[in-house]
Amino acid sequence: MASSIFSVLQGSAFLSSPISHKINLFTFPMPPKTPLVHLRKPLSAKSLASVEIDATLSPAIQTFWQWLWEEGVISSKTPVEPGVVPEGLGLIARRDISRNEVVLQVPKRLWINPDAVAASEIGNVCSGLKPWVSVALFLIRERSRDESVWKHYFKILPEVTDSTIYWSEEELSELQGTQLLNTTLAVKEYVQNEFLKLEEEIILPNKKLFPSHITRDDFFWAFGILRSRAFSRLRNENLVVIPLADLINHSVRVTTEDHAYEIKGAAGLFSWDYLFSLRSPLSVKAGEQIFIQYDLKKSNAELALDYGFVELNSNRNSYTLTLQISESDPFYDDKLDIAESNGFGETAYFDIFVDRPLPPGLLPYLRLVALGGTDAFLLESIFRNSVWGHLELPVSRDNEELICRVVQDACKSALAGYHTTIEEDEKLKEQKLDSRLAIAVGIREGEKKVLQQIEGIFKEKELELDLLEYYQERRLKDLGLSGENGDILGDLGKFM
Predict the structure, then answer these.
(1) Is 129 annotated as a binding residue?
(2) Which fold has domain 4-24+312-478?
(3) What are 389-420's pLDDT values in tens digits?
(4) Which residues of the chain are in CATH 3.90.1420.10 domains?
(5) Whole-prediction pTM
(6) Cα 173 to Cα 167: distance, rounded to the nearest angstrom
(7) Active-site annotation, residues
(8) Which CATH architecture describes the domain 45-292?
């Protein structure tokens, strides 16, 4: 799927569009099966009268809140409640909340995770599936069941988000030239193929377990729910959806991800269970929204793909260089061996963020891919243990000039693929834009700025080529055969 952007001498492909390495598709190990006990009680008039919630909220949200009360998840002392916020739904402080105060706890019996699937009627037929696929199928089936424990939760979930997987062709056209477009199309193709396989191997052969017709759109809905709402950093959990906790929204003001815990505690009047405990990372006044940080390391493109928003913070803007050692390279085997010995492979991905230094390993890998001609002696086995150290510094003028020229050409080519300029995007941002167009404008402007930054870095390097010290000069200096100014000492100078 990834198409080569450019090649260097000896046929070595350098850059290609990043797709597979950016897609974290919930490939987590399946946790062991454990029985789940659901304490289900009918909603009673007495209990409903005890529930305190904003009466202007929709009936679905009010019923969801009542269900949480019946399940013992909330009480009159719970410091948060659902509320309508600019993001859609969020958690609002019912009183002043201090930093790191626990704002909610949800017992494991209400979590939706591979354990819940394993303990259900479809557990046996789902045992061989990828964990995220089994949970997605479970979500779809439970949503269609009137007797589902989570029926009131499903009614407050959105049908779609602004994630790029839900965009129309016209909306996606605004991402022309971006890496996000390629990634989005790759994800959609992947999910489509997983659904077709699931339909053929599990759904159709087990119609008694899946009496309701399951469509491709259903599967994309479940996939989007998992991408945007699943927690994956708990101690014993890799993929879990937690009702109520998933209402909390993201804020750039939160600079730590240390807010969620899995603890052992009381899960009701007569039971103990694992609890998902959520703390507020910031002090919050009554009536204000409570936020967390979804992921400090994600780029704006990843935020757009997973959650359907981007940050105005330019630090999230990134562009991924994909470097590759071509199989047609005459030194392919040697280069691959060196790359693998230093933690890389035939293909290497480097995320470059605006206003940050080039990532470690990028320049050595570039120099390795471009290595050839009279520099090829460094590929000999005698240098195998030291060659990466040599690649950390300029090898030769020809090698350094090549990577500078090729990277600049690649950046120019990529910049030509967008249908707008940075100036045009900046003008658009001054207008009131549709949420999805605003995401598209932010993504393409950000990518272009990073490309310009990369181009500028290598243009500056090219201007300094005559000032650099290369391998031969360093080697002669180490042997004491070169002066401080690079002059060759003694009779050896006659032959150089």
Answers:
(1) no
(2) set domain protein methyltransferase, domain 2 (3.90.1420)
(3) 999 999 999 999 999 999 999 999 999 999 99
(4) 4-24+312-478
(5) 0.84
(6) 10
(7) 294
(8) Alpha-Beta Complex (3.90)
